[in-house]
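Researcher: Going back to the complex we discussed earlier. I've cleaned up the inputs and rechecked each line, so this should be the final set. Can you rerun the prediction on the complete assembly and write out the structure?
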Amino acid sequence: MSESNTSSRNSGPPLKVEAESPNTELERSLGFVEAMAIGTGTMVGAGIFVFPGLAAGQAGPAAMLSFAIGAVIAMLVALPTAELATAMPESGGGYYFISRGLGAFLGSLVGIGQWLGLIFASAFYLMGFAYYLSDVLSVLGMTASLPVQAVAFMTVVVLTGVSITGTKNTGDLQSAIVGLLLVILAGFLGHGLLDALGFFGRETVPESYFPYGIMPVFTTAALVFTSYLGFAQIATVAGEIKDPARNLPRAMIGSVLLVGVLYVLTIFLSTSIVGSEALSGLGETAIVEVARAIFGTVGAAAILTGGLLATLSSANASILSSSRSLFALSRDSLVPDKMREINRKFRTPHIALLLTGVPIAGLILFGQVEVLAEVASLLHLVMYGLMCITLLVMRARQPASYDPDFRCPGSPVLPALGALASFGLIAFMQPLSIGLGFGVLIAAALWHVFYARDVDIVYE
Amino acid sequence: MHTPSSILIDVELPDPSPLPPALVKLVSSLRVVIVGWYEVPEQTSPEQAREQFEDEAGDALQEIATPFEEAGADVTQRLVFTGNVFDTVSRISVEENCDAVYIARPAKQLQNVLVPLRGTHNIEEIMAFVADLLKERETKVTMLHVIEKGESEEKVLSQIIEPARARITDQGIDDAMLSDRLIASDDPADVIIEEAEKYDLVVLGETEPTIRDILFGTVPERIATNSNVPVMVVRHLADEEPAAEATS
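Model: Rerun complete. Updated structure for the full complex:
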């Protein structure tokens, strides 16, 4: 950690400099596989298990293109992010880079945006989880007609409680879940693709590729972009990753590539086998019916199980990252110190976790799945665009302590494209999502002006 | 100049269980690496915990280290905030090039030591450590070998026990302090666990995992988890490591 890298208030005593204590160590206990699992595990919950039906309904078979556009944007952002993360392998992710590169005001905006963006994302994942749970219950013949929102609400209460009491080894669990998912999906896609291409004599559903024209391809890309939010979450735990110079870039870029390919194949398969109109009618859990069409009941059961696990682990990972964002903000005095206090008994940041769990519960009551997803994407896209700009600023300023192990190729063109694409995608969202997203950003700006105006963040 | 053997002793912070004075005395001629670990759940970054608990944890670690320093041991303290204690202890045992790792159990005295010997590949390391540990002490050592199917008693005595005895008496340790036992059984771990109850301390070597080890846990692992006596596991250095690596 560099000593030149500090935050201080102009009034009052300077904060403690973040210098490495000479005789205290911090264990980095996440390897490449765990880092990949955080990224991939967070992403597949949305992209595979919630969006196919919604996306096919909006764009038809061309929803494949929407997912491909998302993958390209995610890749354009992942490359600069990987460079920043190896230059500053600190926990805090995008907030940390932007506050060091572009100053405290944009830092506040992005940090608060990151915290709330992950809250919107968690609410969205939990709604997905609730749809799966309801499906499972109805398959088991328990048609206790609980509204999905009630199920999601109870789940967030439990999940927050579990987080506050502290967990160990859910990382291993997440790696196992991702491994299992990849096996399920590989079997599903492998067989399904041969099937869709006519190897088993199946009649695929013939339909035009762009049934609704070109515009929905972009609006759908904006909607499903939530499927790519996981790669940046790897950066929020950068301080705990072993050999970050090697593992961070590989995990970020690798997880985007992996899920991008999976998504495009999944949509191709779903629209060929079931047809986009039928998919759209099936809503959030459409992919279960695709599995049923290929493998019968066994396939449906496997995908139901996968969906339950994937959406829940996405939510869990996002709650964790969200409370880490508050830690990073609080350490720089942009939010009160209290927010990073650790509970003596459980050794968890209980206040930060409550400040994550309670708003998620509120958003679940609001309950509009597509808006939740878009606001989560919007807040992240603002951060992504600013991260690309941060890279350009760092390259131009050349601070002494800036020495990345991984260098983003194609600068300045590629990061500039990443910034333009990130901001551009926002324009294709629903007006309500755009309004809510900018509302959050304005609230963050006001917070900064009233609470943290005199904080300086220096990176040299 | 012979550098003394080194042992890693790990303690949980901020409320460590006290270590027996007999242990402090026993290892006072060695280099002692005391790892104080403060474990955090996944919800907490180690950094966050350090910020809040570093002072308290550092004081607790110093309190554990002081008796060792006063007894004349060469003490290295390592304070770590970690989400994975196993990773931490194994990483530091390599970094500090420790010959053995101490696995704590309640103990009053450390007068009778059991040294199970299996195979021949790391007897050299085990005996060098035992000799260093017991030099000029009134401690009795029993070497135990479990005879598995197809091994002859004479062969074990001549090829394993005798060389081990010689290795230790060369260091000036009184032959009268040494005894040996041979027990026939197909499950070495069970025999060792049973025998261990009669002693104050077990010193054993790491083993190469066999298939059975992988399924049921390695012998040291099983002994460490199932016995009520403290254990010192002597690390098996890979062959590519230089034998006389300088210790910093």
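Model: Worth noting: The longest strand of chain B covers residues 31-39.
Researcher: Good, that matches what I expected from the previous run.
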